[in-house]
Amino acid sequence: MNFKYTANTLKKMEQLFEEARYRVRYEKGHFNSGYCILEDKKIVVINKFLDLEGKINTLLELLPELAIPKTELSGEMLKWYDQITGSNPARPDAVQTQMNI
Questions:
Q1: Which 3 state secondary structure label does DSSP give 89?
Q2: Residue 69, in any domain of the structure
Q3: What pLDDT band is residue 94 in, cutting at 50, 70 and 90?
Q4: How far, CA to CA in Å, does 83 sit from each of 2, 38, 50, 74, 76?
Q5: How many whole angstroms separate alpha carbon 35 and alpha carbon 20?
Q6: What distance lies between CA 20 and its chain's CA centroid?
Q7: Is residue 78 part of a domain?
Q8: How far is CA 60 from CA 23, 35, 46, 97, in A?
Q9: Is there a domain that residue 96 lies in?
Q10: 97: pLDDT strictly greater than 70
Q11: Enclosing domain of residue 64
Q12: pLDDT for the residue numbered 1
């Protein structure tokens, strides 16, 4: 997905995590990957010294690792989530008629 690395994009990513019931916190620490996940408490801790692009990329990197329940997301957030993860089925009940071999 093509998008601009702006403060608005970061806010939208934070809203996506909030709707999925994850809290995003920015803290200093020794993170090898730039983040830490506290699964039991549903808290994602991001290195606060990352620049805007780094924070957005880190949140994007986390999406596949977390169990984001699509039923928790609002219509707009669900559409945006499907766009950024590439899981946008046109029709979930559609039958696949070809296979790439």
A1: coil
A2: yes
A3: very low
A4: 10, 26, 24, 14, 11
A5: 18
A6: 9
A7: yes
A8: 15, 12, 12, 31
A9: no
A10: no
A11: 7-85
A12: 58
- pTM (2 d.p.): 0.75
Task: Count CB atoms within 10 A of the CB of residue 101.
Answer: 3
Cα gap 70→49, rounded to integer Å:
30
Residue recorded with tokens 């408490």:
41
Write down the mean pLDDT value for the chain.
81
Sheet (strand 43-47) strand order: 23-27, 43-47, 35-38
Residue 56 has pLDDT above 60, yes or no: yes
Non-local CB neighbours of 5 within 8 Å, separated by 6+ positions: 52, 53, 56
Q: How many domains does the chain have?
A: 1
Can you give the three-state secondary structure of 20-87, one letter per residue?
CCCEEEEECCCCCCCEEEECCCCEEEEECCCCHHHHHHHHHHHHHHCCCCHHHCCHHHHHHHHHHHCC
Q: Is the residue at 64 inside a domain?
A: yes
